[in-house]
Specification:
This is Drug resistance transporter, EmrB/QacA subfamily. The chain is mainly alpha-helical. It is built from 20 helices and no strands. The chain is globular.
């Protein structure tokens, strides 16, 4: 199976060698939309894997003898390696070829998912999850950058990004549904093993349908010091927030980890300013519109991940729902995030990204504030469903608009790393934000009285969840302000875009 680029490309493959004064040949229309389906399937697998284990985790913990202190690594071993290595994965996509890295990522994800699903103890389980994160970091930026090289026409790209955004936003909720069903009717192991056949199907489809692209000429070595530094910084920050829940914010271990994370991030920026071939060229987030879009991409997953986690506890621990019913109760979220993303794809050319980012953030903020009114008499139909609809629709608008701005007029040499940065900010924002809000919730719960009685325990749990949802609303309000201050693109900027020949299909 040859993954190298042939000397000559036929009329269904991407020619990225022409000058900027000539237009690139588009793949056959039907083929590129089928290719989008394959790319979306791969992205769905990557996104839902961050949450599919959530409902199954108590069963895996018992089966593998994992302690309460270590169970968090079932999630963070994946998200930290995924987020920390995404920039390196994006650079590899640029230099080795996006299609090639897409296929390598799928193959590795299939094998690592099988390893995690067949784990015999906690260490092998965490190692499998970490390997999943490594190959996801190769796969995700290649998938998004393949969209940018396949869809050049502005309306088509908006539709393609709407599909991608719907999958990215709804994948976490779909993961909860799938995790509940697989855990209840089969085994927790199938929440991981199911990835293997899906990845193999996507790889076969990718070989047949996804365009070949010519890699960017590499000007130097990979920025491994930058990759190590930024990964260590992110691990330190997340672990610091986690330690705060155990030892307190003022504990030496907590302060040391948080300070180390900040210092390592500063060192990463210094490295990127000095090396000739940086992992993250600072010109990418340095443009004000793109910088604002990446900041929004960092903020928005914080309330979304918190909503999934704490509503999952609310459904199962407070309402007594089964794993499968818990997953089903989340079903409106992916439905309405797809609806919101679809609306964004049609409204974006008419109103531009700023209006949709502001409007979507406002809707999601209102939904989180409504959700924060939960009490002991609340019901799913009256108190949860309306909030879920507002949050999902708002985030659908935000995701499409944010991704459009983040990838607008990015140089061809940087398309892979720019795509990776979108995923990096989302994964790291979710990881850091979830660690922070989990710590806040734990401390709020510990400060509530009468938790030794059933009624007092229930009230304390719901109160702590409400604090998390209020905090999420605050983060969404910050995203709204960021959109107002930094996003200056107009609809004419999108309509007048003349694509770089290396970014079109």
């Amino acid at each position: 199976m040859a993954l190298t680029n042939p000397p000559e490309l036929d009329d269904t493959e991407l020619d990225t060698t022409r000058s900027s004064h000539t237009s690139a040949t588009e793949p056959k229309s039907n083929r590129k939309w089928w290719a989008l389906g394959i790319i979306a399937l791969a992205q769905l697998m990557v996104v839902l894997d961050a949450t599919i284990i959530t409902i199954a985790l108590p069963f895996a913990q018992t089966d593998l003898g994992i302690s309460d202190a270590n169970r968090q690594w079932a999630l963070t071993a994946y998200t930290l390696l995924f987020g920390g290595l995404l920039l390196l994965g994006g650079r590899m996509a640029d230099y080795l070829g996006r299609r090639k890295m897409f296929l390598i990522g799928l193959a590795g994800f299939a094998l690592s998912s099988a390893a995690a699903g067949l784990a015999w103890n906690g260490a092998s389980f965490f190692a499998g999850r970490a390997l999943q994160g490594v190959f996801a970091a190769m796969l995700a930026p290649a998938a998004l950058s393949l969209i940018t090289v396949t869809f050049v026409e502005q309306k088509e790209r908006a539709r393609a990004l709407a599909v991608y955004a719907g999958v990215s936003g709804g994948g976490a909720a779909i993961g909860l549904i799938a995790g509940g069903a697989l855990t209840e009717y089969f085994s927790w192991r199938w929440t991981l093993l199911i990835n293997t056949p899906i990845a193999l199907i996507a790889a076969i489809g990718g070989l047949i349908l996804v365009i070949r692209d010519k890699p960017v000429t590499r000007r130097g070595s990979y920025d491994l010091p930058g990759a190590v530094t930024v990964t260590a910084a992110l691990v330190s920050l997340v672990y610091g927030f986690t330690k705060a829940a155990e030892s307190g914010w003022g504990a030496a271990s907590t302060v040391s980890l948080l300070v180390a994370g900040v210092v390592l991030l500063a060192a990463f920026i210094a490295i990127e300013m000095r090396v000739s071939n940086p992992l993250l060229p600072l010109r990418i987030p340095g443009e004000i519109n793109r910088g604002g879009a990446f900041l929004i991409s960092f903020i928005v997953p914080i309330p979304m991940f918190a909503m999934f986690l704490f509503l999952s506890y609310y459904f199962q621990n407070t309402l007594g729902e089964t794993p499968l019913r818990t997953g089903v109760l989340f079903l409106p979220f992916p439905i309405f995030i797809v609806i919101g993303a679809g609306l964004a794809s049609s409204l974006l050319p008419r109103f531009g990204p700023r209006a949709l980012l502001v409007g979507g953030s406002a809707l999601a903020t209102a939904g989180l504030l409504y959700l924060a009114q939960l009490d002991t008499d609340s019901t799913w139909l009256v108190n949860v469903l309306p909030a879920m609809i507002l949050i999902a629709a708002g985030m659908g608008l935000v995701f499409v608009s944010m991704q459009t701005v983040a990838l607008h007029r990015v140089d061809a040499d940087d398309s892979g790393v720019a795509s990776a940065l979108v995923n990096t900010t989302q994964q790291i924002g979710g990881s850091i934000g979830l660690a922070l809000l989990s710590t806040i919730v734990a401390q709020v719960f510990a400060g509530r009285p009468n938790t030794n009685t059933p009624d007092g325990l229930k009230e304390a749990n719901i109160f702590s969840y409400d604090v998390a949802f209020y905090s999420g609303a605050g983060f969404m309000a910050v995203a709204l302000v960021v959109a107002l201050v930094t996003i200056r693109m107009r609809k004419q900027d999108l309509a007048d875009e003349s694509p770089d020949p290396l970014l079109v299909a």
